[in-house]
Structures are given as structure tokens and as C-alpha cells.
Design goal:
The complex is a heterodimer. Chain A contains 9 helices and 20 strands. Chain A is α+β, with helices and mostly antiparallel strands. Chain A folds into 2 domains: 237 residues, 3-Layer(aba) Sandwich (Rossmann fold), CATH 3.40.50.300; 105 residues, OB fold (Dihydrolipoamide Acetyltransferase, E2P). In chain A, helix 4 crosses helix 5. The longest helix of chain A has 18 residues. The radius of gyration of chain A is 24 Å and the shape is elongated. Chain B folds into 2 domains: 61 residues, no CATH class; 212 residues, MetI-like fold, CATH 1.10.3720. Chain B contains 12 helices and no strands. In chain B, helix 9 packs antiparallel against helix 12. The chains are: A alpha+beta, B mainly alpha. At the A-B interface, strand 6 and helix 3 of A face helix 7 and helix 8 of B.
Amino acid sequence: MRELDRIGVALNGVRKSYGALQVVHGIDLTIRDGDFVVFVGPSGCGKSTLLRMIAGLEEVTDGEIAIKGRDVTDLDPSERGIAMVFQSYALYPHMSVRDNLAFGLKMARTDRAEIERRVGQAAEILKIAHLLDRRPGQLSGGQRQRVAIGRAIVREPDVFLFDEPLSNLDAELRVSMRVEIARLHRELGNTMIYVTHDQTEAMTLADQIVILRDGRVEQTGTPRDVYENPLNTFVAGFIGSPRMNLLDAEWRGSGKVRLADSEIEACLDSLQAGERIVVGMRPEHIRIVASGPDAVKATVEFTEYLGGTRYVYCKLGDAQNVVVELREGDDIPSGSTVWLTAPSERRRYFGATGARVG
Amino acid sequence: MRTRSEIRARKATWDRLAYHGIGIGTAFFFLAPFVVTFLSSFRPNSESGTPPLPPWPRSGISFDAYRALDGFGSGIWQHMFNSLVVSIGTVLLTVAVSVLAGYGFSRYRFPFKNVLFVLVIATLMIPFQSILTPLFIILARLGLNNSLFGLMLVYVTLQLPFSVFMMRNAFDAVPKEIEEAARIDGARDLRLLVRVLLPLVMPGIATVSIFAFLNAWNEFFAALVLLSSNDNYTLPVLMTAVRAGRLGAINWGAVQAGVAVMVVPCLIVFLLLQRYYMRGLMAGAVK
């Protein structure tokens, strides 16, 4: 019973199809109450559709959605205990900020004093009290986004839904609003579901990241989890910037992997010798060493200097590209031959299907 | 030797002069017909046959022309009332139907939506004189011939294709998210339409209203054909009766007075709604 109380949102076999085209393929997901969950994935992966189904803006073709133990699958959006912040803010342009905030409460026939109190409180939290009498057209992008968040707060929802709320803001504002949203989550403690394609937002905000591809969940876990232990090549390649180097290789058996024209050591006993595998190494884990037994020979193509760090772009003997992140050491001239290695506990191995094997 | 700032100031003065000069000139051409009509409508009977220029009454202001106008048909107030009933009714019905139809065409998905829409628009290409006979027969069957309500229905019918088109565009310009936000806020159906969407499509409604009002107010042919009793005549029909005069003599004073009376409501409607109307025509021109 206590466990049930702690469930914020539960999705059970949720599907969505438009005619014959299925875009969300049976998603099961349990979100703990109070968690900040980020849906992330490439465009067209169904993350927004999924969020809109939770909001009730999109009909569920099959499956169930429950919020705080209550089946809301067929309820009207306003009865689900949710509030949503849209990418385009979607403020009512003909109403003042105050009326924008109060509109939902007015629709619910909340009494005047209560509306006043909640609007004041939300304006306080978001520091928009001085803007209450303006129209949305007179506000800057960041202020509009605050108002949009304020409109969500006054509803005192069980679940906040954010649909790429920061993608219309410029880079600097995006960072400060990101921090603000994190602060808001700490203060309010509500369940929040956040859709983005920006993995920095995903990594920094999330308690749980849900990585989606083609309407399926590829992996769910904490940011650290999905970064360090990706379940497949898609997640490995999607999370992290620059992305993980995913290198085609061959398992030779007895602890050896053939990678380009070198051999490295690994422990993949479940595989048959001769199977194709993918070796994953993050750029920051790769070190440049003098030739060694567990290293791969590569040619340096060029280097990007970013101040605190450098990205060295290399090519292996079989023309596969490798990015190495170097924080210190001398510059390496283009065209020189180097040996690359990564600590064995940092390497990830994936089978031919893309699933993790070691 | 003049300084550069002097040259600039001089140029700015000339620019301003040219700008306002052209503006005043244009305004003069637009205002002149109104002024001429209004002034000459106050000429006494004895002057009504004199040349139109200068337009003002020379032997004192007189309301002879208006009195004469009131003598035609069932009196000017009755015909004014007829015209207002038909025009306002046309506006209300046109707006009500086109808002709902425009919303439907903009937001719902239903079979043959585009075919239907093209069909609605295509009726704009049919000259309405050509369907006047069938319309007359239909109205007669419905018992609506020689009734202002019947005439109003005809005007609404003629007005709808353009209005539906206009309203669909207006609704298309409203971002879907606003509607979704309102749905999450708990506004549904009629409340959603009235509280959230109507204010946003106000420019479209103003445009539709102006067109509906002016067309219904000025329409002559259908009114002439469909109305048979004197009491029901709308102003344009009355005006031809006035212009036709008695015994071949045209009472130009009464004609001027009639034109003045007819123009006033149009001016009022346009001035009230022009702010929205301009925005409606500009909608979507720039993002």
C-alpha cells in the first residue's frame, strides 16, 4: 500500500497509432511521486506524443495511464491533476499576466480570495509580481516562459508536464531557466515530466531519464546510470557529447578483440569467436600512450581547441573515426601516429544487435 | 556656408511638409464627395436644381430635402428600420455561422473536408443574379417572399462563402497550443470558443461584419426582386423610387438627403470596426 502511494504516474502498455501508423509501441513506465523525469530522444521518437497522452491532449489508442493511483486514461485534461508548459508558451495574448495565471482557476470556479492568494504566491516564486498587469506581448521570452510556468503552478497540479520549454530561448537564458526549473522542483517537490531533445537539460535536471526511440523505451535510469551503463549502442551514442566512440570490432575468443589492425584485451566469454561486436569508448576515457599491448594504432587528423579541453580527431587503420578528449599534455601535430587505449573497466561492448554484452 | 545639421533640419522640414501635404491632399479627395452630399442636402427646395458647385446652401440651411424624402413610400424611418433589421440580422447570422464553420474547417478532421471547403469557396464564382430565380422560387415555397427575414437569409447565403473563408484563416492563425492550454485550464466547447478563441479572431469577425453589413445595406437587385410591398422596401430600393421622381422631374434635393442618410450607418460601422479590420487584412502578412 505504501509503495502504491509513492507512485506519481504509471503508464501501462500505452500505445498510440494514427490509422495504420503506430507511433508509440506499448510503453510501460512507473514514475515515483516527486521525481523529475526527463523523456529524451531524437525528433520523431514519440516523446512529445507520450507527454501529450499523459496530458490528455492526445487520445490513447490502447493501454492505461494512472496519476497518483487514479486511472485518468479517458478523463478530460483539466480533470487529471496536471499542468503543462508548452514550447511556444501558449499564453493568452488578449489577457493580462494576472488573468493568464487566474484563467484556469476561474474556469474551475475557485473563489476570488483563493485565486488572489495563489496568483500572488506563484508570482512571488517566479519573481513576476511586477509584471502582473502587462500583456504577454509586452514581455521578453524569458518572462513569458515564467508566466507559462506560473500558470502551471497556480493549478497546484500533481504532475507538471514540460514540452521542450526552453528551446525557444537563447543559450544564456536557457541555462538560467534550467537552473530555475531545478530550483522550482526542489521547492515544490511535485512530480515533473520534462520532454527535451537536449541531453544537457536531460542530464542536469533529471532524477530519471527515459530514453525513447521510435516509440519504444530504450532505457530508463538515473543520469549516471544511462551515461555509464548504456544498455545498447543507441543509448551509448545518444547520451554524451561528444558521443561515445562506437567502433566495429571482432571477438577473437580467449580474451582478445580485433579492432582495426590492433588487438585489445577483453573478457566476453559468452560470445563465439569470430562474432562481430562494437567497442564503446568515451572520448574522455581514451588516453594516448606509447605503443602497448592493449592499444589501438591511429592517425591524428586534426585537433579542436576549446580552451579547457581539446578534441583530437583520429582515424584507425580501417578508416573508423575516433574522437579523443585531452585535457592536458602537448599538442599533437596532424598526421602523426598515436596509440589509443582506455581503461578496461571503462570500455563497453555491444553485440551485433546493438545490445550490451560486456 | 551652412552647417550639416542645418541642411539636415531643412531636409526634415521639407520631408514633413511633403508627407503631410500628400496626406491632406488624399484625405481631401476622399472627403469631398461626402462633404458635397451633406452640404447640398441642406439646400432649400428652390436651390435643389442649381449646379452642384458650390455645394453649400446659399439662402440659409433648410430641411426641405429631408422632408421631401420622408414623403416617399412609408416614410424614411420605416425604410431605415427595414434596412437596419436586414443588415444587422445579416451580420449576426453571418458571424454566428461563419465562426462555427470556420472553426470546424480549421480544427477538425473529417472526410471530404477540403472538397467541401473548395465547394464553399467555388460558389463565389457564381454570379448571384443567375440564381435569383431559383432563390425566388425557394423563398416563395417557404412562404418567405416579400419578407425581410427571407431577404436576410438570401444575404447571409451570399455572404457566407467569403466569411467562412475569412474565419477559417483567422482560426488557422491561432496557435493550437493556446487552445490546448485552455483545455488543460478547463475551458471546453462554448466557453473555450467565447473566452479564449473569439478575442483572438476578433479581426476576422470585424472584417466579416463590415463586409456583411455594407453588402446587405447597399444591396439593391435582390431586394428589388424579392420585396414586393412598399412597406418592406429597404433604402436602396426606396432611393430608386426617389430618384425616379414624380412626373419625370427628379427631386435632386431628396436624392442628396437619401444618400446622406444611407451613408451615415456605413460610416459608423466602419469607424467602429476599422481598427480590427485593418489587422484582419494584415493577418499573416508578416510573422
